Amino acid sequence: MFAVNKRFSGLLLMLAIIMILSACSSRAGSSSAEQTGAGTETTNGSTETTAAASNDSGTSGNATRIYKSLSGDVEIPAEPKRIVTDMYVSDLLALGLKPVGAVKYYLDNPFYADQVADVENIGDRGAVSLERIIALNPDLIITPSTDAEEIEKYKKIAPTVVIPYGTFTNVHDEIRGFGELLNKSEEAEAWLKSYDESIEASRAKVKAVIKPEETFSILEVSDKSYYGYGDNFGRGGQAVYRALELAPLEITKKELMGDTQWKEISREIIGDYAGDHIFLTVSEGNANYQGDSIWQNLPAVKNNQVYELQEDRYWYFDPIAIQGQAAEFADMIVERAQQNRK
Question: Which CATH fold would you assign to the domain 202-341?
C-alpha cells in the first residue's frame, strides 16, 4: 500500500511541475502581446484616439476615441458602423453615413426620403422604442434629448453622444461639428463646398428678379389667426433669411429673430407682419387660401406674391432640407416674377 502511494505521489509531483512551466510560458506570451498591442493616445481637436487591444484571432479590434461633448467626455468607436439617431439623419447622410435606425418623422423628410428607405424605424418623436434600438445592436447613439432618464437608458445600450437642439446655429457649424464627431472632416468640407455652390446659384436666380429693398415674411394660417416665424424655426425660415439672404421686415427682425422665433398674430393686425412677399404655410384643408377682406387687401396678395407651402414639406430645417428648400424657393420666386410680367 505504501509503495503504491509513493509512486502516485511521484506522478502528482511531475504533473505539478508541468503545470507550473505551462503557466509561466502562458504569462510570458501574454505579457509580450500586451506590450506589442497597446495603443497610443493622440489628441485631435476635441477627440482623443486610443487603439483597442487585438482580439483572440490576432486581428486588430475597433479603435475608440474620447469625444468631448457638451455633457462630458464620451468614449465612442473611432469609426462607428451602426449609428442610431432620433434626429440627426441629415447630418449623417451629408457625411456619407447612413444610420441603421432613426425616428419616423425624420425618415419621412421628403428631401432625403429616397436615401433612407431601408433604415429601421425606431418609433416617433417622444415615443422611441428601446426594444427596436436594442435589436439593431448600435455601436453609437446620437440624440438631442435633454431627458436625463432617457439618456441613461440609451447609455445602457451603446455609447451615447448628446447634442441638444440648438447647439449649432448654422449649416456650416453643424456639418463641421458632425464631421469632427464622426472623424469625417474631409467629407464635411466636401459637402459644404457643394452646398455653398448650390446656395450661391439659388441666390443668383433670386437677385435677378428681386430688388434689394423688397421684404419677405413667413406666415402660417390657422382657423382663427396667423403665426409668424423667424430664421431658425422651420417653415422655410433658414432657407429664406439665411441661405437666400432675403430681407425681413423690421418687426420680424425685432420680434422673431432672437430667442423667440414664432408668435401668434391676430387677423386684425396681420398687415403689420406682411412683407412685399409672403411664404404662407398651409395644411391640406386650407390650400389655395383666400382669407378675409384684410388678407385680400395686403399688397403681397394684390400683387400675386404669396407662395403657399405645404406644411409637411417645410417643417424640416436640417442641412439637406435647407439646401433643397432654397432651390425650390428660388424657382418659385422666378416663376412668379415671370408670370407677373405678362
Answer: Rossmann fold (3.40.50)
Inter-residue contact 85 to 107 (CB < 8 Å): no
In sign, the C-alpha dihedral spanning 135, 139, 144, 147 is: positive
Q: Which tens digit of pLDDT belongs to each residue from 150-197? A: 999 999 999 999 999 889 989 999 999 999 999 999 999 999 999 999
Sorted by where each begins, the domain ranges of the chain are 62-183, 202-341
pLDDT digits (tens, 9 = 90+) for 296-336: 999 999 999 999 999 999 999 999 999 999 999 999 999 99
List pLDDT tens digits, range 218-271: 999 998 999 999 999 999 999 999 999 999 999 999 999 999 999 999 999 999
Cβ(322)–Cβ(342) below 8 Å: no
Set of cell numbers at residue 336: 412668379
pLDDT of residue 71: 83
Half-sphere exposure of 88 (CA within 13 A, CB side): 30
The Cα–Cα gap between 51 and 69 comes to 20
pTM for this prediction: 0.82
CA–CA separation, 263 vs 249, rounded Å? 15
For cell 433612407, the residue is 116
**Pairing assessment for the beta strands 83-85 and 72-77 based on DSSP bridges:** unpaired
| CATH code for residues 62-183 | 3.40.50.1980
Alpha carbons 208 and 54: distance in angstroms, whole number: 61
Q: How many residues does the chain have?
A: 342
Task: Collapse the DSSP code of 199 into the 3-class scheme (helix H, G, I; strand E, B; otherwise coil) and give the result.
Answer: helix
Cell digits of residue 34: 500586451
User: For 46-76, b where at least 16 C-beta lie within 10 A, e where not — what string?
Assistant: ebbbebeeeeeeeeeeeebbbbebeeeebeb
CA distance 153 to 155: 5
